[in-house]
Amino acid sequence: xxxxxxxxxxxxxxxxxxxxxxxxxxxxxxxxxxxxxxxxxxxxxxxxxxxxxxxxxxxxxxxxxxxxxxxxxxxxxxxxxxxxxxxxxxxxxxxxxxxxxxxxxxxxxxxxxxxxxxxxxxxxxxxxxxxxxxxxxxxxxxxxxxxxxxxxxxxxxxxxxxxxxxxxxxxxxxxxxxxxxxxxxxxxxxxxxxxxxxxxxxxxxxxxxxxxxxxxxx
Amino acid sequence: xxxxxxxxxxxxxxxxxxxxxxxxxxxxxxxxxxxxxxxxxxxxxxxxxxxxxxxxxxxxxxxxxxxxxxxxxxxxxxxxxxxxxxxxxxxxxxxxxxxxxxxxxxxxxxxxxxxxxxxxxxxxxxxxxxxxxxxxxxxxxxxxxxxxxxxxxxxxxxxxxxxxxxxxxxxxxxxxxxxxxxxxxxxxxxxxxxxxxxxxxxxxxxxxxxxxxxxxxxxxxxxxxxxxxxxxxxxxxxxxxxxxxxxxxxxxxxxxxxxxxxxxxxxxxxxx
Lengths: 218, 272
Known about the structure:
Chain A is an alpha/beta fold. Helices cover 40% and strands 17% of the residues of chain A. Chain A has one domain (30-210): P-loop containing nucleotide triphosphate hydrolases (Rossmann fold, 3-Layer(aba) Sandwich), CATH 3.40.50.300. By secondary structure, chain B is of the alpha/beta class. Chain B has two domains: 2-80, no CATH class; 84-268, Rossmann fold (3-Layer(aba) Sandwich), CATH 3.40.50.300. Chains A and B meet through helix 8 and strand 8 of A and helix 1, helix 2, helix 3 and helix 4 of B.
């Protein structure tokens, strides 16, 4: 049986580390999770668990990814016994390929503050009247990072991170570890890490780690 | 000339460092761990601080007490692969092992018999790829060790590798040797052996040649390492304590081996 997430870990004890599934299933409000996968199936597995559990808890769930990934997530939602069509129709589940929920700007402007503000505004529609909180999953921003457009990626991550404590949401950001290269990404990687609260690494232990639990030291 | 006995401390330190990097990769995944190492190289400054110390410091900042996971894992890896009596380690060898065993010429064949014994005990066919000058010494040692019957029944085969060495030295072509090895594996499997254990003196013969063929020896070891990973074989490479070259050659040689042995000490490394 996989271990459940149970808040802060016992200090320094290896056996106290928790499996990533517990964190994804039941993330603390304000969690901004960085998921680095090296196996695409793991990306979908984590995203689907995050989405399915959110839907079951009547949270609003928003996914931003490619057509293929969104189709995989949708299929898993249905396999879990949920009515994906109804969830989408009711607005409880959004599966979109861009951040422009309202037909806003695309590509480079996608991570501008204006676009993000509009996106967040749209995402929180119905909160808290209909939905207690929001779950957001996405991998679009990672593409900017992979392609060396660090300012674009970090602008989004920073904006989300700054607001994580004031908005009732949890975020799961998927990054493809296979695209990380020490030469190209090492310097900016620190900024990605410090703009997240948890890390689900691609290692074989399948653990989740809390990032900067004692604060970020510049 | 290099004398590996003088590099023992360095080899042990390297073994411990590699346990640490492997632990980091087990927790974070290979590519993330490597990227993070690059991040810490740039971020954590300090003259005289090793990369491992800098990474440990960076991990502590990132994960606080959870960073000890890596330390604990590294300790486990180190203890699992720590230096130990060679004799014990030889008795535990399994398939997909790649050994380099440093010794003096007088004891080389005797030391190799531990590998022969272990392979035969596992039901493997043992093939020794030897230069003709070593054939008789190995045969005598095998007989002395009680393996005469194994030779007669083909369980232990001594193969004259002179022609392969000549092809390597003159044409630099590895393919013929690799095909021959794969052929031997096919034949052994056809005879009902599930594993083949090789003693290979190809690389050491190349290093001992005049002039030495260092780059070629490293290519041979690298190719053997690839075979070991993918085929049901183990590979044992006897090497002299002393051979021509600069100290970096020792590190390059070891990088392709999962295990090394200096004198009576077995050292774990993570070339795989």
